[in-house]
Specification:
There is one protein chain. The protein has 977 residues and is mostly beta strands. The chain folds into 6 domains: 190 residues, Jelly Rolls; 97 residues, Sandwich (Immunoglobulin-like), CATH 2.60.40.10; 199 residues, TIM Barrel (Alpha-Beta Barrel); 47 residues, no CATH class; 93 residues, Immunoglobulin-like (Sandwich), CATH 2.60.40; 186 residues, Beta-galactosidase, Chain A, domain 5 (Distorted Sandwich), CATH 2.70.98.10. It is 12% helix and 36% strand. The chain contains 13 helices and 56 strands. Helix 3 links the parallel strand 26 and strand 27. Helix 3 packs parallel to helix 4 and helix 6 packs parallel to helix 7. The longest helix is centred in the middle third of the chain and has 15 residues. The mean pLDDT is 96. The structure holds 1-methylethyl 1-thio-beta-D-galactopyranoside (IPT). 1-methylethyl 1-thio-beta-D-galactopyranoside binds next to loops.
Length: 977
């Protein structure tokens, strides 16, 4: 190996040269060479240098490829920063201390590749890749999320062994445009492979398949020897149907003097009668084989594609797929894994997409870079609309870079190579120019390239809307704001000035216990022409599995050390700051709808219901009206079961016959039950499951649980006639054999991430809401009844609390009121908290459930009779916070295995939580593993509970979900079982 300083790839210092996007790299192509290739994944010799121009030493360790060295035992650990760059240098400069991984291994070049063209493919490396073979410089590549290919034919000999060295420089000019909100890593994150082709080969294939059945295949042919040989031709076959040569194209080229013989282009066409079109609901795919022939007819090269016939267009302000204004129920997805960082396996990606399908998502934005190639194959196959995003985010230096001509090539290169790679995927419906990079000439240049190369898809870029969402800029065909308040979206749609589809590229920030008002958003979207959906931020909580004892990432050895969203003892989900970084953005990296192990958070159930393909439109005496809310599919793939839940504790079921409804149609179906005259409140649920196996769900998988109330509860007028004894202490606090802490007023919750970042928690802290001083004003003892008036005094004001305890019906009735002064507008909750003796481990309730729900996130939790162990009620958000609540609870029992315990009835549906944690205990720790569960239960019964909103990044909850000042009243009863 040459001296590092003499090596031209090092001497060039490409890590500080934005003009250098590559050298010696082959053009990107949509021809997939993965099958038949020699995989080079596995352990490579490895050393981590302090800088790219440091001389590699004699001592090697090893590193697994694909993988990041930041999770493989080096001292260069992951660092999480959102907007800020991890170093101070301005673009295109980087610090002198610049971790550089040198990977090396021997490769046996198959002898049978003699005479063939031999290509090395590096799936992805961040952020600069330098390639040497046997010490000879071969190439350079940038873009941490796209493959780089190099022609090794001149530097290797079939039958011989070659030493391949891949040098990966962590910080570069490119880091400034890869400033995405995620962990910083370094390494080779996707597979490395070697393949061979005939010198005469298919350099690229472009497939255009329209919904009418027209197929056009454009082929680019090259010969490694230079000029193309006479007489070559291509043929194509689509599921047995032969494609025809576009002779007109050939003739026109031959006659056109501007077209040289070197063009190497051919076109094939087909018309497919009665074509089955592709859409996210029925993702029909056809198999296409393209063959390149030599003049004698022998096959020189073959390329296989899966083709989906579909159209994407914008008509007026609607985005249409096959002529339909589809709703975009999207999520932003990163390539993420808690053990391997950015390296994701096919099985993991499939599991991601299967889960999303099961929870009603139909769209993915590949935030914020082209995802692993297999993701798109899976999206084609399982049915997702994909916004494919280029690897451009210059967040910290957005303004400087957007118009910097030194970065022009990088912008165009990144968009162009993404388009070239992914253009044949029917799932890709929109190109995105990147994220959070201001808006400048570099964007327009990249948009121009994309539009010319692929006129079949819209282009979007959030940053383009500098003069408003209707601005006719070059960079965005979609108005795709992030975190826009719903009222602004509505106002735009109703303004008469809307020119583009409004699909939020990010909304409903899923950090911690969040996604309040999601159902309100969707009610508005579905009811308002011009609004078409959006992409929730985001899919993953990017917690990295970390050993607690030495603070090291568990890495690949951590397989199986987590379950149900929780890390095994001795481990935790690390977020920003946990690897000793001083500069970091904390738990802002934990903002997904799934935990780091893909366990769904409660919001997923909310989403599933909001996206329900079949719904109960209304209830009339003769029956219920069902509606098909899909765009393309009937109801035949679903089966149903009716469930009637009565307040008396009974549930009845009956098979449901789903009517044959086309999309958009409704039909009345008769009520399956005689509603009993007695029984109070009554709820009818349609349990909808898959009728057969779907590619993403076995038969019987729950799809949605639409529900309608058949009868309201009768208001119960209680006259309080005492019939027993109430025992209180000198403070007027209830003394009860099953309670270890008496019921007192609670105004606070362990702040959620939204409460913290939205500023509410700070206000509550200033007010002293967490622990106001309770001062007893009066305790009035009457036979069978004690009335206690107290004041809860805190810096923010004084809350007068009245609690009347009446012995009745073998139990106790508690009537409470709290008067919040005007100054205490918008508190976390107003309600009662008490604690129980240990052993009451099972909660049964009539109310919404079974999963966690809150006032502004309760559309997906049907009313019914639910039952869960107390330990399973709590949701282990990475940074402990208010969690485990259940909305609309009418009554509950908390019992021991011998059925002893207590029963509580509420005057009306209330927010209740039963957990092992006091609010103060949750708020005191930073990680879930630091929580010490109590043996007994902490029970909250809330007269009012603040909505969750999404204020950690975006709008807070609506005013109607706030806990206002004034008088709150609530009553409940407590009985020993
Ligand atoms: C926006 C980013 O696009 C996304 O990457 C993520 O950071 C998200 O917010 C918040 O988690 S940018 C934000 C400053 C609005």
């Amino acid at each position: 190996m040459t001296d590092a300083h003499l090596d031209p790839l090092i001497a060039l210092r490409p890590w500080q040269a934005p003009e250098v996007t590559s050298w010696g790299r082959l053009p990107m192509s949509a021809v997939d060479r993965r099958s038949g290739a020699v995989p080079l994944d596995g352990d490579w010799r490895f050393q981590l240098l302090p800088a790219p121009d440091a001389q590699p030493g004699e001592v090697w360790s090893s590193s697994y490829v694909p993988g990041v060295w930041t999770l493989q035992g080096t001292d260069d650990l992951p660092q999480y920063l959102n907007v800020r760059m991890p170093f101070a240098e301005f673009p295109p400069h980087v610090p002198a201390a610049n971790p550089t991984g040198v990977y090396e291994r021997e490769v046996d070049v198959p002898a049978e590749w003699a005479g063939r063209r031999i290509v090395l493919q590096v799936g992805a490396a961040e952020s600069v890749l330098l390639v040497h073979v046997d010490g000879r410089p071969v190439g350079i590549s940038k873009d941490s999320h796209l493959a780089a290919e190099f022609d090794l034919t001149p530097v290797v000999r079939p039958g011989d062994r070659a030493t391949v060295r891949l040098t990966v420089v962590k910080w570069s000019d490119a880091s400034h445009i890869e400033d995405q909100d995620q962990w910083w890593h370094g390494g080779i994150t996707r597979s490395v492979l070697l393949y061979a082709t005939d010198p005469l080969h298919l350099a690229d294939v472009t497939v255009r398949a329209r919904r009418g059945g027209d197929l056009l295949v454009e082929c680019r042919v090259r010969d490694a020897g230079g000029a193309l040989p006479e007489g070559w031709y291509v043929s194509g076959e689509l599921d047995g149907q032969l494609l025809t040569q576009d002779a007109e194209f050939d003739r026109a080229n031959a006659e056109d003097e501007r077209v040289s013989g070197f063009l190497g282009e051919a076109r094939l066409r087909a018309a497919v009668p009665g074509v089955r079109t592709w859409n996210a609901e029925t993702p029909e795919l056809y198999g296409l084989t393209v063959r390149l022939h030599r003049a004698d007819g022998t096959v020189a090269d073959t390329s296989r594609h899966r083709v989906g016939f579909r159209d994407v267009e914008i008509v007026g302000r609607d985005l249409l797929v096959n002529g339909e204004r589809v709703f975009i129920r999207g999520v932003n997805r990163h390539d993420f894994h808690p053990l391997t960082g950015r390296t994701v396996s096919y099985d993991d990606m499939r599991a991601d997409l299967v889960l999303l399908k099961r929870f009603g998502f139909n769209a993915i934005r590949t935030a914020h870079y082209p995802n692993d190639p297999a993701l798109y194959d899976l999206a084609d196959e399982l049915g997702f609309y994909v916004v494919d995003e280029a690897d451009i985010e210059s967040h910290d230096h957005a303004h400087e870079i957007a118009d910097d001509p030194r970065y022009l090539g990088a912008f165009v290169d990144r968009v162009a190579r993404m388009v070239l790679r992914d253009k044949n995927h029917p799932s890709v419906v929109i190109w995105s120019l990147g994220n959070e990079s201001d808006y400048g000439a570099n964007h327009d240049a990249a948009a121009g390239w994309g539009r010319r190369h692929d006129p079949t898809r819209p282009v979007q870029y959030e940053g383009a809307a500098k003069r408003g969402w209707a601005d006719p800029d070059l960079a965005s065909d979609i108005a795709c704001p992030m975190y826009a308040p719903l009222e602004e979206c509505l106002a735009h749609a109703l303004s008469g000035t809307q020119t583009k589809p409004l699909i939020q590229c990010e909304y409903s920030h899923a950090m911690g216990n969040s996604n309040g008002t999601l159902a309100d958003h969707w009610a508005a979207i579905e009811a308002t022409p011009g609004l078409q959906g959006g992409f929730i931020w985001e899919f993953w909580d990017h917690g990295i599995l970390q050993r607690v004892n030495d603070g090291r990432p568990a890495g690949r050895g951590g397989a199986g050390l987590y379950d149900n969203g929780v890390a095994a003892p001795g481990h935790r989900w690390a977020y920003g700051g946990d690897f000793g970084e001083t500069d970091h953005d904390g738990a802002f990296i934990a903002d997904g709808v799934v935990f780091p192990d893909r366990t769904p958070k409660p919001v997923m159930f909310e989403h599933r219901e909001i996206a329900a393909p079949v719904r109960i439109a209304c209830f009339r005496h003769e029956g219920v009206v069902l509606a098909n809310h899909q765009h393309f599919r009937g109801l035949d793939w679903l089966s149903g079961e009716w469930e009637l839940s009565l307040a008396d504790g009974t549930t009845r079921t009956a098979p449901a016959e789903l009517p044959g409804l086309r999309p958009g149609e409704t039909a009345a179906v008769p009520l399956p039950f005689e509603l009993p005259a007695e029984g109070g409140e009554a709820w009818l649920t349609l349990r909808v499951t898959t009728a057969g196996d779907e590619p993403w769900a076995p038969r019987g998988t729950v799809v949605c649980l639409p529900q309608v109330r058949l009868r309201a509860a009768l208001p119960s007028a209680h006259t309080r006639v005492p019939d027993g004894v109430v025992e209180v202490d000198e403070e007027g606090l209830l003394v009860h054999p099953l309670l270890t802490a008496a019921p007192v007023l609670s105004l606070w919750r362990a702040p959620t991430d939204n409460d913290e970042l939205g500023g509410m928690a700070a206000r509550w802290r200033d007010w002293g809401l967490e622990a106001p001083a309770r001062k007893v004003v009066s305790v009035r003892r009457d036979p069978g009844r004690v009335a206690v008036v107290s004041e809860y005094v805190c810096a923010g004001g004084t809350v007068r609390h009245e609690q009347a305890l009446t012995a009745m019906d073998g139990g106790l009735i508690v009537d409470e009121s709290a008067e919040l002064p005007e100054a205490l507008h918008d508190v976390a909750r107003v309600g009662t908290v008490f604690e129980t003796v240990p052993g009451l481990n099972l909660l049964e309730w009539f109310g919404q459930g079974p999963w966690e729900s809150y006032p502004d996130r309760a559309a997906g939790a049907p009313v019914g009779h639910h039952c869960l162990p107390v330990d399973e009620l709590f949701t282990p958000y990475l940074r402990p916070q208010e969690s485990g609540g259940r909305h609309g609870v009418r009554r509950f029992t908390l019992s021991a295995p011998d059925a002893t315990g207590l029963a509580v009835r509420l005057d009306r549906p209330r927010q209740v939580s039963v957990t092992r944690h006091r609010a103060a205990g949750l708020a005191a720790v930073a990680h879930h593993d630091e929580l010490v569960p109590r043996a007994g239960c902490v029970v909250h019964i809330d007269a009012a509970h603040r909505g969750l909103g999404t204020a950690s990044c975006g709008p807070d909850t609506f005013a109607s979900y706030l806990v206002a000042a004034g008088v709150h009243r609530w009553s409940w009863s407590l009985r020993v079982l």
